[in-house]
Amino acid sequence: MKNISKLLIFTFAALFIFSGSAYAHVTVKPSSSAPEAWETYTIKVPVEKETATTKVTLKVPEGVTFESYQPIPGWKVTTEGDKDGHVKTVTWAATDKGIAAGQFQQFSFVAQNPKEETKVAWDAFQYYEDGEIVEWSGEEGSDLPHSVTEITVTPKADAEPADHGHEDEADSKATTPDNSKDAATTEGDGNQTLIITLAVISLILSIVALFAALRKNKK
Question: Cα(53)–Cα(70) distance, rounded to whole angstroms?
Answer without folding.
Answer: 19
